[in-house]
Amino acid sequence: MNIHKIANHLTELGDESHTGLKFDCFPIDGDVEVLQVNVAGREELPVFVSVTDNQVLCISYLWDESEVKEETRTQMFETMLELNIPMPLSSFAKIDDKYVVYGALSVTSSMEEIEQELSVLSDNCLEVIDELVEFLK
Predict the structure, then answer these.
(1) ∠ Cα 94 82 40 (to 5°)
(2) Which of 15, 48, 99, 109 has its CB 3.0 to 4.6 Å from that of 113, i.e. a possible disulfide?
(3) How much is the mean pLDDT over the chain?
(4) Rounded to a whole number, what is the distance in angstroms from the first to the last CA of the chain?
(5) How far apart are CA 71 and CA 12, in angstroms?
(6) Dist. CA 113–CA 23, nearest whole Å
């Protein structure tokens, strides 16, 4: 499993996706191979995919620390914890000063399972922003 195989699969799907979504893929060069996956109509919330020996990691960046209202930060954290379990296939994290939603799959996952993860993660990002917008400047 590698990002090129994932990119080829998603690109070849075109309008035939099991999820009804259309994906555009852009490999990003670097020390770690990363695939930027844009969901049509949601380009402002790309999903970044990397593959390790043990997992396929999918991450979408939500906002950075400077966008959080300081006086509501603790309440935002509580709300994130409450949302974490009912949010299927996704969890919250913070990378440096950026808040993210992520999901991980086994490297033995099928392409359909990866497509499903990308779809659910993208859907969850939209829901999270709707739920937490009150905590942002």
Answers:
(1) 60
(2) 109
(3) 96
(4) 40
(5) 47
(6) 15
- For the stretch 39-54, pLDDT in tens is 999 999 999 999 999 9
For the chain, the domains span 3-135
What does the buried/exposed string (b/e) look like for 93-102 if buried means 16 or more CB atoms within 10 Å of the residue's CB? eeeeeebbbb
Q: Looking at residue 17, what DSSP letter applies?
A: -
d(C-alpha 117, C-alpha 87), whole Å: 12
pTM over 0.70: yes
Class of CATH domain 3-135: alpha beta
Element (H, E) at 123: helix 111-132
Contacts of 62 (CB under 8 A, 6+ apart): 45, 98, 99, 100, 101, 125, 128, 129
Kindly state the tokens that stand for 129. 């922003």
Residues constituting the chain: 137
